[in-house]
Design brief:
Length: 249
């Protein structure tokens, strides 16, 4: 669905991504993980035309989208939920959803907002509350619901779990699997909670210093103890290292 070929990009003179090639298959979750500063957010910003792309190609459903402004990308069905500042704190939950549906005719936006409160009951409960008063997890759900208001084909999600307690982060990430399974949305998921993200993901890329260090199935990356340990802080014994109980009786 999305194809990135030999992308070089960054901010002004600062180059962050080097000859990066990534493919995002339709109706799956592609997980991008890597250490802080690796360039994960820059990758999303490059797709959204926010970072400076010096060379390379970005194709969405076979057409180049390089350097298209964000509102045109939204019209094509790409929805971006940024790492920070993804809700309007001073507006109510209802108004946030309405704002997110600005591209839709009013009646459709209203219907869609209702659907969102069915999908995320917590939003219904707090529909008239200011977004500023929601908890971190609730705010993240609102941000995802706002992304969904645009009826996206592809969602770019940047670190939904940041600053959340593990149990809430787990809940938010599980919601992402639901978007794929129930709505058939293609997802590019950038996550610090690498283990959980790789468990629900289909395809995975490990980004290190602006380049791809691993590309393959998400589960396969979990089976690379060295990469997991060195770059993702996942410490798990490889299957063959688990002590056998044979002979212990
Ligand atoms: N707007 C900006 N202007 C200049 N440099 C930036 C900007 N945003 C990010 N950078 C730099 O680009 C590099 C990559 O940052 P990026 O935000 O893409 O990393 P990341 O992989 O998303 O990290 P994290 O896991 O901490 O979110 C970093 O060295 C960062 O300091
Ligand atoms: Mg980031």
């Amino acid at each position: 669905m999305l194809k990135i070929n030999k992308l070089n990009s960054g901010y002004g003179k600062l180059q962050v991504l080097y000859d990066l090639s990534i493919e995002i298959p339709e109706k799956g979750i592609t997980v991008v993980v890597g250490p802080n500063g690796a360039g994960k957010t820059t990758l999303l910003c490059s797709i959204m035309g926010i970072a400076d792309v010096s060379s390379g190609e970005v194709e969405f459903q076979g057409n180049s989208i390089r350097a298209l402004p964000s509102y045109l990308l939204a019209r094509q069905g790409i929805s971006y939920v940024p790492q920070m500042g993804n809700v309007f704190a001073e507006l109510s939950v209802r108004d946030n959803l309405q704002m997110a549906g600005y591209l839709l005719p009013t009646a459709k936006a209203k219907k869609k907002a209702e659907q969102m409160t069915v999908m995320f009951p917590v939003l219904k409960k707090f529909i008239d509350r200011k977004a500023a008063t929601l908890s971190g997890g609730e705010r993240r759900m609102l941000a995802v619901a706002m992304g969904l208001m645009k009826d996206p084909k592809l969602m770019l999600l940047d670190e939904l779990s940041t600053d959340l307690a593990p149990i809430i982060a787990e809940k938010v990430i599980s919601e992402v699997a639901r978007l794929r399974d129930e709505l058939g949305i293609t997802i590019l998921l950038v996550e610090q909670m690498a283990k959980r993200a790789l468990e629900i993901g289909d395809t995975a890329y490990l980004l290190v210093s602006g380049g791809v260090r691993f590309a393959g199935k998400a589960r396969e990356l979990l089976n690379e103890p060295e990469l997991c340990n060195m770059y993702l802080g996942i410490k798990q014994p490889a299957a063959q290292n688990i002590p056998s109980i044979e002979g212990s009786r």
